């Protein structure tokens, strides 16, 4: 759980494996007694802050050169890059705290914060708050509602199997 939470903002793993899934699995495991809840919460908090700090460092070191080089391929010309920079400077703090609950924002916000020159001290303060709200909320929610979540996951699995079988039968 900790490794995936850390890698979510460092290696952009969150685009492919949302942190919510990882935290839900951790909450269910704690509910089943497979892991202790309090150490899990601490692990999530530390891993999330370290992931944000690493993403921020990468943004500081290679953010603008990478955006300048790859930007035109992504439709980011010089004017749009200036607007992006202004927006990030204005909303960067809110993006780090509130954006924790929005997958794509959570994945890119620390890198963007480093790119725009946000201080490491400010990033850490914001990350501690954002991760401190996000991690426990999702882990504790799935901890208390593990039976319901497990039933939904099982029902979704049956639905996927039924859809695959129907697709094969129609084909």
Q: Supply Rg.
A: 19 Å
Mean pLDDT: 82
User: What would you call the structural class?
Assistant: mainly alpha
Number of helices: 7
Order of helices and strands, N to C? Answer: HHHHHHH
- Give the proportion of residues in helices: over 70%
Largest sheet: none
Describe the structure.
- Helices cover 81% and strands 0% of the residues.
- It contains seven helices and no strands.
- It has helices at residues 2-10, 19-31, 37-70, 78-97, 103-115, 120-144, 146-170.
- α1 (2-10) runs parallel beside α3 (37-70) and α2 (19-31) packs across α7 (146-170).
- The chain is flat.
- The model has no long low-confidence stretch (mean pLDDT 82).
Task: Map the helices and strands.
Elements: H1 2-10, H2 19-31, H3 37-70, H4 78-97, H5 103-115, H6 120-144, H7 146-170
Helix pairs in contact: 1-3, 2-6, 2-7, 3-5, 3-6, 4-5, 4-6
Short précis:
This protein is mainly alpha-helical.
Write a concise keyword list for the protein shown above.
171 residues; 7 helices
